[in-house]
Amino acid sequence: MTSIEQNSDIQEQLAKIFDISATELNRKAYIVLIDNKLSQIEAMIYKILNRHGIKDLQQFDEFFQKGKIAESDGWEDFFELDGLISEKNTLENIKKKIIQ
After folding, report:
1. How far apart are CA 5 and CA 44, in angstroms?
2. How far apart are CA 46 and CA 27, in angstroms?
3. How far apart are CA 11 and CA 64, in angstroms?
């Protein structure tokens, strides 16, 4: 039996155990994976914001412009935060499509 066939058998077994369709099983699995990733991203975002004593990306940018945060101290964090927020938004949009 190939891994694809085994995966299908496992999927069928789990769907039967949980008394849901294979499609619903996949949908719920995607949601769990997305939620786990979102939790990781939110923790990373919180860590960056907390490190600089700010509440969001806009305040980070404002602090840069006013010189409250030196570019050398936060430039990498700023871009990491921007990327994390973008990834979070993408995952939230995908999750909304899956739930609908």
Report:
1. 38
2. 28
3. 51
Residues 6+ apart with CB under 8 A from 36: none
State the Cα–Cα distance between residues 75 and 61, nearest whole angstrom.
10
DSSP3 helix / strand / coil % (the chain, rounded to 5):
85, 0, 15
How far apart, in whole angstroms, are the C-alpha atoms of residue 70 and residue 43?
A: 23
pTM for this model (two decimals): 0.83
Instruction: Give the pLDDT confidence of 65-99 residue by residue, as tens digits.
Output: 888 888 887 889 999 999 999 999 999 999 999 99
- 33 contacts 91 by C-beta, under 8 angstroms: no
Length of the chain: 100
Spatial contact of 28 and 95, defined as CB atoms under 8 Å apart: no
- pLDDT given at position 74: 86
